[in-house]
Sequence to fold (223 residues):
Amino acid sequence: EAGVTQSPTHLIKTRGQQATLRCSPISGHTSVYWYQQALGLGLQFLLWYDEGEERNRGNFPPRFSGRQFPNYSSELNVNALELEDSALYLCASSRPGTGETQYFGPGTRLLVL
Amino acid sequence: GEDVEQSLFLSVREGDSSVINCTYTDSSSTYLYWYKQEPGAGLQLLTYIFSNMDMKQDQRLTVLLNKKDKHLSLRIADTQTGDSAIYFCAESKDDYKLSFGAGTTVTVRA
Fold:
């Protein structure tokens, strides 16, 4: 069974641009979570999508947004990129229901110049 | 500061046991997790423990939970060079998000 996949693996953008990151969950998983792993800040919860709806978001500005498609894959969009957005963005998925174990993808490394 | 706290570094000799410690804050957390991150990679789920358990063993891994002290530990028996990685302790908060520690970098020396 395939795990969580993310694309692209690396992304280089300049300040002010927009970045789009993609995630495909494990088959049968309906929830997708996004986390940011920035140097010195650790792993921070960004967004949670379930059944196509944004269920909750972490303490990030509105320029971090996303969506979940009918096939449960998800996109994370970061607008007006800032240098401090440089980080590893990790996607995780879980089975339906709260409290289910989250399985992570390999991440997208975003570098903002 | 972090809700979940871990020591930052651990150096262990190949073949010895490694013990990684973690303290968490939310007594209502239902599950506690250990994830492993190798250089340049995502997070690999190693094991988890339900909050009403005090121990879980899975091959070379033993998780101990002291709920009274909010202390979690991961013991890796017969540590190998492939165990060199960053290990994250995480608690499940509000049943939807994981709150992670800063990670413990484990270095296995020959």
Summary: DSSP finds no helices and eleven strands in chain B. Chain B has a mean pLDDT of 92. The CA atoms of residues 76 and 95 of chain B lie 27 Å apart.
